[in-house]
């Protein structure tokens, strides 16, 4: 456009030479050109300045086309922390055609989850997450919007409310007690702690969902299979996938992530479908059993599943029954998969740290004896009084956050954070694992020292308001199951530690290395031997 205008101006100047008003016309023309050029120059300088004022974050150079992809390795959480030492509080990684931004300081994290929380409340699920969440229908992977807002509101206000969680305490307790009596029969034998706690959690969640649990001879085998499948699922969700970085190549599925996720997703889908069929159609299944009296599900009794079934209709009014079923399974996945693996992994870490630090184990057991007594079982009302155990759990969350990179967020508009531009659509990781071990924040950060949480117990809670400590995330997308996670984790752990003495099998060396998945687990499963420590055997039989 400016070229056309300049051209017309030159033409005008040429014709003016032959006319009487040649001089004023020439001046006008020059002025127009000068103003246009000046405007253009000022605009370009301003634009350059603006960009240089807020450039993209620093970051390592990569290779043409591939970016940093060839250097990423398998342990993302370790690599991201290594890079944070070089590039500081915020850096970028170009991975194929996608831009990733990693946040490594509380002050920059605050800008994301507090100051610009609304901008960053979106997710951009990768191929594996989209497939596994039935096309982004789960709470965890749905885009910000009315669907996600309504679902989350329902989940947090109705399912996770104190009243609702109090109402289903009995169901949780029965599952924990059942596990304790099974364990009593196995005392003196080595137990895989991750497997044990996952089974408690699956059954606890299923009991709260619809009053049914895994039952029968195949129960343990099913639990172990579930664990294996969920572990693979978490690795696939977190693995760098070439198809995500080069969408044009996605059809090739070069690493087979899509193929593997399809298989894992199918297994979980069948599992969840059986749960729904048992719960809603009264279908029988050799693996699931409804608790006695639960078969007469009536109008007054609204378990988790019933609440979802009712409200899901409102959410997806115009959808076909198949779609509604998918939405329901996506939500069940949030609970049965997202809620169980994170919680049981954390219990395993706590047990490992306590077995490593015998004096802390003694303090925990002493506190349990004082608060609960050796002639009683743990109840949820004891939990707030277990100050030392709660500090141990917080310290385990600090050193071993289940999701050390949280779940990535995506800004819906370009914005400035920490003085750098984060373009719309980039993937933003909050490197909580790194912040939790930052020596400028934490004294001797790699030491397991629960006492740091006792010094000022009100300073650190799990609500994500202190950006130096965010094991459940923060802001609009903070963990939706926090209330239940806190109760289930502390109750199961306190019960296991109160009812049994634990020791490592002879000759076994404990090590605490981890392996990456979206949930970071112990590299080698923790195996320990339980021995009863309560006053009478009858206590182990109580429900
Ligand atoms: C120790 C146990 C748990 C840990 C450490 C944990 C941690 C987290 C974290 C870090 C996030 C991402 C937060 C963010 O992006 O800022 C998250 C999201 C979520 N969690 Fe948990 N979680 C746990 C247990 C549970 C349980 C028991 C449930 C369900 C009953 C649950 C349901 C969810 C859901 C639905 C989301 C997605 C929230 C959203 O995107 O709006 N979690 N969790």
Automatic annotation (TrEMBL):
Q: Which UniProt keywords apply?
A: Heme, Iron, Membrane, Metal-binding, Monooxygenase, Oxidoreductase, Transmembrane, Transmembrane helix
- Residue spans crossing the bilayer: 23-46, 193-212
Q: Report what the protein is called.
A: Cytochrome P450
Does the keyword Hydrolase belong to this entry?
A: no
Q: Which GO terms describe its molecular function?
A: metal ion binding; monooxygenase activity
Family affiliation: Belongs to the cytochrome P450 family.
Keyword Heme listed? The answer is yes
Its cofactor is: heme
Top-rank taxon of the source lineage equals Eukaryota
InterPro entries, A to Z:
Cyt_P450 (IPR001128), Cyt_P450_CS (IPR017972), Cyt_P450_E_grp-I (IPR002401), Cyt_P450_sf (IPR036396)
User: Known Pfam families for this protein?
Assistant: p450
Which positions does UniProt annotate for heme binding? 479
